[in-house]
Amino acid sequence: MSIHLEAKKGEIAETVLLPGDPLRAKWIAETYLENSICYNDVRGMLGFTGTYHGEKVSVQGTGMGIPSAMIYCHELINEYGVKNLIRVGSAGAFQKDLKLMDIIIAISASTNSSLNKMTFNGADFAPTANFELLMKAVEYARKNEIDFKAGNVLSSDIFYDEDPDYYKKWADHGVLCAEMETAGIYTLAARFGVRALSILTVSDSLVNGEEISADMREQKLGEMVEIALNSF
Ligand SMILES: O=P(O)(O)O[C@H]1O[C@H](CO)[C@@H](O)[C@H]1O
Ligand SMILES: O=c1cc[nH]c(=O)[nH]1
């Protein structure tokens, strides 16, 4: 048991998929894992362990935002020995050529959070994906003809920005989309010497205002889950 997880030692696999939405975690466990058990419902932040093609895998909701995701990842790594953290999240597109349901693999994560500025005395740290997980995800997507874009994403502390055009300066620097956790997860993985990757699906566009429904965000983002389950 840790402060926010009630799993017993050994109940969580070395590889954990990390959706923000705990109900997406439940859907992933029910849809993709065999013999899954629910090991956590503290705060309703559901976590499950089962097998995928015979291999033990867990899926843990992280909540929204870097602070919440870092709490769960810290405990997964330090209390449960997790080695592979693979976020499966939704994201808002910054680029015109990204459509709803497109897949994005985050090579790196910019952020407007001060988390690393505090750690590095005002200097910038570049939160980066693990190369082996990244290559496996790319290889799986290519082999299965799943289109994706790979690049820099923004892990934002702000979902409802006052300025609807705030995304343009990021877009002009090639940033693909906004989400709210990857920079924190990549930073912790680097700190503790484990592997992390974020695979995202476009759920809305800041360019044209299109969006998918909350139900779809919970239960229809299967392509990225399939990539994640074949990336470690
Ligand atoms: O769909 P999830 O994985 O929660 O990811 C995105 O959705 C939430 C905002 O709606 C934030 O957590 C953001 O990162
Ligand atoms: O963080 C997020 C997630 C989805 N869409 C956004 O615009 N931001």
Automatic annotation (TrEMBL):
GO terms for biological process: purine nucleoside catabolic process. GO terms for cellular component: cytosol. Keywords: Glycosyltransferase, Transferase. The keyword Cell membrane does not apply. GO terms for molecular function: purine-nucleoside phosphorylase activity; uridine phosphorylase activity. Its EC number is 2.4.2.3. Coiled coil: none annotated. Residues 16-211 form the Nucleoside phosphorylase domain. The keyword Transferase applies. It catalyses: uridine + phosphate = alpha-D-ribose 1-phosphate + uracil. It holds the Pfam family PNP_UDP_1. This is Uridine phosphorylase. It comes from Christiangramia aestuarii.
